Amino acid sequence: MRKLKITEMNRLSVEEFKEAEKLPLVVVLDEVRSLHNIGAVFRTSDAFLVNCIYLCGITATPPHPEMHKTALGAEYTVDWKYCKQTQEAVNELHAEGYTVLAIEQCEGSTMLDHLVLDPNKKYAIVMGNEVKGVQQEVVDMCDGCIEIPQYGTKHSLNVSVTTGIVLWEFANKMMKR
């Protein structure tokens, strides 16, 4: 087995990415503080053709050299929007017809491996702060909650890791439409 060279991977150019059909999926970052986590979310969102990222509250916006270390340019390919409050983003997404789902451990959460997506719907996922998670006021506004099953001693995963897992699951299901 031979590793592929970058030139053999047939990746989209920035221009091709901007023109490509995106998943009907938006990522909302609710008060995410780490520039490295934000950058990693941009990079993963680029990989899975996410439509847009909403950066809310204390979540930093591009351009930023620390964010670029993990985004590696994806902060220039993936569309983004800033909202002062996450509630504003959720209201806007609802008005645009999105089903908004918090990624959080809640009473009645749907386990990610049991998630069923409607092929006729657009979705937004809300990712929470590294310490506090998704704000309760935001959870209350969402159409549901998704939880990643965990089997070890820890009760949570890093927000960028969680985003990667959830985006993979959504992309895997949505691209089969």
Automatic annotation (TrEMBL):
InterPro entries in the cross-refs: Alpha/beta_knot_MTases, rRNA_MeTrfase_TrmH, SpoU_MeTrfase, tRNA_m1G_MTases_N
Which domain of life, per UniProt?
Answer: Bacteria
- Methyltransferase as a keyword of this entry, yes or no, is yes
Residue ranges of every copy of the tRNA/rRNA methyltransferase SpoU type domain listed in the record? 25-168
Q: Which UniProt keywords apply?
A: Methyltransferase, Transferase
Task: Give the transmembrane ranges.
Answer: none
What start-end ranges are recorded for coiled-coil regions in this protein?
Answer: none
Pfam families linked to this entry: SpoU_methylase (PF00588)
Q: Does the keyword Transferase apply?
A: yes
A Gene Ontology annotation in the biological process aspect, one of them, is: RNA processing
Q: Which GO terms describe its molecular function?
A: RNA binding; RNA methyltransferase activity
One of the record's GO cellular component terms? cytosol
Q: What is this protein called?
A: RNA methyltransferase
Recorded source organism is: Phocaeicola coprocola
